[in-house]
Amino acid sequence: VRRAREATALDLLALADRPLPEDAIGLSAARLRSLGLVVTASDGIAVRHALIAEAIVGGIAGARRRHLHRRLAELVPGPAERARHLLAAGRRSEAFTLATASLATVTDPRIRAVLLTVAEKTAEDDGSVWRVQAARALLAVGDPDAAVERAAIPLSGADDLRALGAAALAASLDHEGRSDEAWAVIEGTRDLRPSPGSEGAVELAIAESVVLVNRGRLDDALVVAERAAAASDPAARSYRLAGTLAALRLYAGRSDRLDELE
After folding, report:
1. Across the chain, which distance is largest between two alpha carbons, in Å?
2. Opening angle at CA 54, ends 51 and 60, nearest 5
3. How far apart are the C-alpha atoms of 143 and 112, rounded to whole Å?
4. Is-contact 221 245, C-beta < 8 A?
5. How many degrees, rounded to 5, is the angle at CA 149 between CA 147 and CA 153?
6. Tens digit of pLDDT for each residue in 159-192?
7. Model confidence, pTM
8. Does residue 37 contact residue 10 with C-beta atoms inside 8 Å?
9. Of 157, 142, 237, 145, which Cα lies nearest the Cα of 192?
10. Structural contact between residues 249 and 223, judged by C-beta atoms closer than 8 angstroms
């Protein structure tokens, strides 16, 4: 019984991939510490070495793994970690409910990126709306690899949404220095007809402008941005489009007003 309890505690710590409160592990904590398998951290105890944790996780079978993730969802702090473990436990409906409800109050961009990704993966439909939001959030927090992974999945829905998804994919690829692939994405949107001035149309224009600049085509980038601005209601014009247009005009020598970038 003791060995089984210790094995479960070690499995939980390995799957958590973070320190857990010592009281969550119970009596096994002292024994595991004496064996040199865990260390004390400022916020609990953790497996001593990442390689040990990796080996432990690799040996946990599917059904047991799901059961342990369900337990971890009750032990870890924060909605993002709880939602992630609920997803891994196969509790998709619970994970979606927690993720989407938490988005109403969570402001930290990194936590929002995790919640949006969980929402996308657990939505009852194909998750297209959540997927676009997740890709944009991941790019915003500096994870273009993950953004490309999400945005590259085909989308369903209206042209506005598909344009927004293409903008996220092109921007993420361009951020990684994959300019040719980013341009191929832009070229693949020529048949889309997002509503003029919509978020999809605006973000696609911004992405195209940035890719063009990085390909040495500043004048073409300015044309794209100006065309998007002309199609937008001035009163509701995106600050991102306004900032992009001001920067392009400045770089092209058509303006010397630095205040427009503020």
Report:
1. 77
2. 145
3. 13
4. no
5. 110
6. 999 999 999 999 999 999 999 999 999 999 999 9
7. 0.85
8. yes
9. 157
10. no
Q: Six-digit token pair at 164? A: 């927004």
Can you say whether the dihedral through the CA atoms of 58, 59, 60, 62 is positive or negative? Answer: positive
Q: Which helix (H) or strand (E) holds 55?
A: helix 50-58
Q: How far apart are CA 51 and CA 69, in angstroms?
A: 20
| 3-state SS, residue 194 | coil
| Cα–Cα distance, 57 to 28 (Å, whole number) | 18
pLDDT digit string (tens) for 43-85?
889 999 989 999 999 999 989 999 999 999 999 989 999 999 9
Overall size of the chain counted in residues: 262
The answer to whether 90 and 62 have CB atoms below 8 angstroms apart is no
φ, ψ (nearest 5 deg) of residue 156: -110, 165
106 near 112, Cβ under 8 Å?
Answer: yes
Instruction: Give the 3-state secondary structure of residue 45.
Output: strand
Q: Which two tokens stand for residue 173?
A: 């690829």
CA distances to 2, 203, 248 from 219, rounded to whole Å, are 72, 19, 9
Query: Is residue 243 a contact partner of residue 229, using CB atoms and an 8 Å limit?
Result: no
**H helices of 76-187, where?**
79-88, 92-102, 109-122, 128-140, 144-151, 159-175, 179-187
Alpha carbon distance, N-terminus to C-terminus of the chain: 65
DSSP letters spanning 4-42: HHHHHHHHHHHHHTS-B-HHHHTTHHHHHHHTTSEEEET
Tokens coding 213? 């600049």
